[in-house]
Write a structure and sequence with these properties.
The protein is α+β, with helices and mostly antiparallel strands and 32 residues long. Helix content is 38%, strand content 12%.
Length: 32
């Protein structure tokens, strides 16, 4: 089984956190 993601966020610091939230708001499938 494989998943397809639009964005892969590496790192959970302040930048990664904001990036993951914004990607979800834009309707992108994000992997953190």
């Amino acid at each position: 089984m494989s998943d397809t993601f639009d964005v892969i966020v590496i790192g959970g610091g302040p930048g990664g956190y904001v990036c993951a939230i914004r990607a979800a708001q834009l309707g992108l499938k994000a992997a953190c």
